[in-house]
TrEMBL record:
Residues 116-201 form the PSP1 C-terminal domain. NCBIfam families: RicT_YaaT_fam. Residues 365-439 are annotated as: Disordered. Residues 427-439 have a biased composition (Basic and acidic residues). Residues 375-408 have a biased composition (Low complexity). This is Cell fate regulator YaaT, PSP1 superfamily (Controls sporulation, competence, biofilm development). InterPro entries: PSP1-like, PSP1_C. PANTHER family: PROTEIN PSP1.
Length: 439
């Protein structure tokens, strides 16, 4: 029964907190109570309290039972107790003298003859039967809601709790007003074959049974330790200078958060030092209206009608202006004080800058290196291309020589070589040429 922080020994008892069966940190069960009287020595064992507190359904419901057996139970033990026409199985949540204080808190008398008894330590058969009946609860919730809708009843079935032996079922419901469920009980008894008990709860109790995480990041107070629910209204938020926003002020249950009452007494004590009749003061610029009261700095914030700016004034200055107004004297200025924040100014680190002005030298170096490598590769390719051209040029000359040798052989064979020059078409005959020479 120990939590993960404690660890569990071979005997089934936690090692860390030494609570011998239950976790004293409150992490194992809902509504866990710390037994601060556990190590208190007893002078007379006959005066020892024989009543134990038993929790059901993971701590959502608790009741007191008389221990008539000769066995001493410890916190965290599973026991079988008297139920309605049968038995039920629960877990021991408190033992010893702390139980008397709890009984006094809830108005339960130790000598009450109608108090039910603890029968025995829970056996394996009892635990198996409880597990079987607990598995019926989710299906019973769905079916019971459908039946209530068919009968046109303005109610919501929140949870169904089965007794360990399966002879009784408690139906927890939410309703705005009174509901006539006489016919509903008959249908439930015929449908589920159990003895039916109807119990009305509020929205806050439903949230405590369902559980969840609040806006503060912790488990809901109603499901961990809060048992008595006080009324919460919007006046509580006004005393604490909170904006009346239902979305932010409402909890999981849809009602105003219970934690609004936690600091209310502190605010009421602090507001006693502020004047009550200073909601409006008059100066030369007009009437200044009170906006809020700061109990931490003892300042009162006012706003003038011609501007949206708020002016912080000390309590002494407000009382002085109010006394002057009673004497029909109108001061010239409000004389606000300068509010200096004690919070150190955060210096922006160097890497937080406007986009485009960030100098990433590592990326620039890598880009420059890539461009240089690409340029070197292009130069190598060009040098290789020029080397290949120079190597191919001398090889082409000896290839032309074999073609000129056959022409020389033909010329040596007696065949006249053809002149490449074109013949002169205007060449004169030889006779005429000779005649001219003779003459």
């Amino acid at each position: 029964m120990g939590c993960s922080n404690c660890g569990t020994a071979t005997g089934g008892k936690p090692n860390g907190c030494k609570s011998n069966g239950g976790c004293s940190t409150g992490g194992c069960n809902r509504m866990n109570t710390y037994d601060w009287l556990r190590n208190l020595p007893m002078a007379n064992t006959e005066d020892q309290c024989n009543v134990v507190e038993i929790s059901f359904s993971k701590g959502t419901r608790k009741d007191f039972y008389r221990n008539t057996t000769l066995q001493l139970f410890e916190k965290g033990d599973l026991v079988t107790v008297e139920g309605v026409s049968g038995f039920d199985v629960g877990e021991v949540s408190l033992t010893g003298e702390i139980v008397r204080l709890q009984m006094k808190k809830y108005g339960v008398k130790e000598e009450n003859p109608e108090m039910k008894k603890v029968l025995r330590t829970a056996t394996d058969r009892d635990l198996d039967q409880r597990r079987i009946n607990k598995d019926r609860e989710p299906e019973a919730v769905i079916r019971s809601r459908a039946i209530a809708k068919q009968l046109n009843l303005n109610m919501k079935i929140s949870q169904v709790e089965m007794q360990a032996d399966g002879r009784k079922a408690t139906f927890f419901y939410i309703a705005d007003g009174r509901v006539d469920f006489r016919e509903l009980i008959k249908v439930y008894a015929q449908e589920f074959k159990v003895k039916v008990e109807m119990r009305q709860i509020g929205a806050r109790q439903e949230a405590g049974k369902v559980g969840g995480i609040g806006s503060c990041g912790r488990e809901l107070c109603c499901s961990t330790w809060l048992t008595d629910f006080k009324s919460v209204n919007t006046t509580v938020a006004r005393y604490q200078n909170l904006s009346i926003n239902q979305t932010k002020l409402s909890g999981q249950c849809g009602r105003l958060k219970c934690c609004l009452n936690y600091e209310l007494d502190t605010y009421l004590d602090a507001l006693q030092g502020f004047p009550n009749d200073c909601d409006q003061i008059q100066v030369a610029k007009g009437n200044a209206y009170l906006i809020k009261k700061d109990i931490f700095k003892n300042l009162m914030w006012y706003a003038l009608p011609d501007s949206n700016k708020q002016y912080p004034l000390t309590i002494e200055r407000v009382r002085k202006i109010k006394s002057l107004n009673r004497q029909n004297v109108i001061p010239e200025e409000l004389e606000p004080v300068e509010v200096t924040s004690s919070k150190p100014v955060e210096v922006e680190p160097e890497f937080v800058d406007v986009v485009g002005q960030i100098s990433l030298r590592s990326l620039e170096r890598a880009d420059k290196k890539k461009r240089q490598q690409k340029k070197n590769q292009q130069q190598q390719q060009r040098s290789q291309a020029t080397g290949q051209k120079q190597a191919q040029a001398p090889r082409q000359q000896p290839a032309k020589q074999p073609s000129s040798q056959p022409q020389q052989k033909k010329a040596e064979g007696g065949r006249p070589q053809q002149s490449r020059h074109k013949p002169n078409r205007h060449k004169q005959p030889e006779g005429k040429k000779q005649g001219k020479t003779d003459a």
